[in-house]
Amino acid sequence: MTFLILAIIVGGALILIGLAVPRMSPDAAGRKAEEVRRVRAILPILGGVVILVGLLLASFRVVPGGHVGVQILFGRIIDRPLPEGLSLINPFKQVQLMSVRTLELFDHADVPSKEGLTVGLEVSTLYHLDAAVAPSVYRTLGDGYAKVYILPQLRSVIRGATVNHEAKDLYTSGREVIAQQIQDELAKTLAQRGIVLEKVLLRKIVLPKMVEDAINSKLAAEQDAERMRFVLQKERQEAERKRVEATGIADFQRTVSQGISEPLLKWKAIEVAHELSKSPNTKIVILGDKSGLPIILSDK
Q: In Å, what is the CA distance from 9 to each residue of 3, 14, 45, 75, 290?
């Protein structure tokens, strides 16, 4: 639009200058008269060419990728947005670019908990603008719609969510539930204006020092209790293993004692004496003790 205005000013000036050149009488002769007539004829034409070129160039608009163009004609917003790429439009229209990419809105808020404590939250909101409603958003909220509309709604939803939860929920696994609740409520509100909410992230939570210490102590106690339960379970398993082992040994001894008889022991003793008698070494063997087993006194 600025280029078109400049072209119109320059072209109009050339036309006015050409028309302001005094007319020369047709009967006037000479080199000077010829130059005056030439300037008077050329300047208006040149001015018209400058204006036409300005109008032509202003009719072509390029919307970069990831953006949409909002057309404005003499202060009136056109409801049809310009898509990305090259477009041919009315040269007198202005084009306001609006991003449709994913944007991040960061905020630090001090919010109340269910117990009345003040908790510090750092929240990131990921969102993008629906290209089809970009003219409506620009008309009602302007290009700074994030601070005008999204930020106040985000703070309101956060306070509404945290006031129903205890401070410890923000510090433990309950934070995911709270984040999802904030996201669901905020998404409904933003959708009414054509703003698409992608994700709400609770980046950092700052609790009062007293509450943080109490929560850490409780978590440490729960971890100790869990560790003790593990130790007791391990000891019970070890005791059960020892009972199984003792039962096995007792069964083995009972089986062995039942399978070995006195005749069997005597027969094995006779076999041993028989084998000793085959040895070439000199030995003394005495038989006939109370058990009837051989006793080796010497191997010489």
A: 10, 9, 14, 21, 141
Token pair for residue 31? 């080199």
Integer Cα distance of 83 and 157 in angstroms = 33
Neighbours of 226 (CB within 10 A): 10
Interval 37-66: pLDDT, tens: 676 677 777 777 777 777 777 778 888 988
Q: Is this prediction's pTM over 0.85?
A: no
Contacts of 254 (CB under 8 A, 6+ apart): none
Residue 162 contacts residue 112 (beta carbons within 8 Å):
yes
Axis-axis angle for helices 151-162, 174-191 (nearest 10): 140
- Which residues, 6+ apart, have CB-to-CB distance to 107 below 8 Å? 122, 123, 125, 151, 154, 155
